[in-house]
Amino acid sequence: MTQDTPISVHGPALRFETLFDEETASDGEGLELHPDLAAVYGGPLRLKPPVKGLPLLAANFVTSHDGRVAFNHPDHRGGGPISGFNDNDVWLMGLLRARADAVVIGEGTLRAEPSHVNTSEDIYPGDKDAFAALRRHENRSELPIISYITLDGNLPTEAKVFSMEDAHVVVATTRAGARKIRATVRPAGKIDILEFGSSGVNLERYARIMAGDYGVEFLLCEGGATLYGALLKAGIMHEPFITRSPLVVGESPGNPRPSLVEGTGWLPDDIPRMKILSVRKAGDYLYMRYRATYPS
Asked: pTM higher than 0.85, yes or no?
């Protein structure tokens, strides 16, 4: 498939309005989005090539007006309620998944939504054919690798992904976590378990393994806030995509609601900083792409 081969895209009813896009100012470098999908997104959405043995690591989150990423309520899981199940936000998630060689999430995110599978078809079935065509166009596998980070191996055995014969799952965990997964998880598809010693998972080493052993050039993180913070702390997060929802969520005593980064903090001397690459708008929602920079 070439750039001239058309891809039929439905997309959200409300098109993205580009307010700012650094990529429109120059030719840029990297893999440019197929023009039929770029017409919906409103820009080229180039994927930079991997550097120094690391994949391009992006994140995709939706936050409320007041910066919350989850309601922390058993009847309202994940980011969908935070966005109000906004069609543009869901389509963008499908687009990013369609370009990802692998999608990684933390164990808490999987436990919160075990019926969810991190594929484009699962999140936006209306454009499943377009997203599949995009994967073929970019020479990617039919499905992305689904990857989990877990310290204790406490993965829900009923998770839908483990019943999929065509799924390739890669789990990064500790020695104890690996023992538990081998004893409890019986996947229908392929599962690889990466052991990282007794106390934790070295996220930089994990990313290098995903690049070197699995050929992952674009790795997409979809949560949660603790994993996102840890990737920033490791200095390997490159390009967060953040949707700003107009909904105000707040929190009440006894029901803390997580913000975008949890479990990690910085002091003024060592803080990461975000450079804005693009800002798009649809209705009262903002869709922002950043590039993370780190102190030398």
From this structure: yes
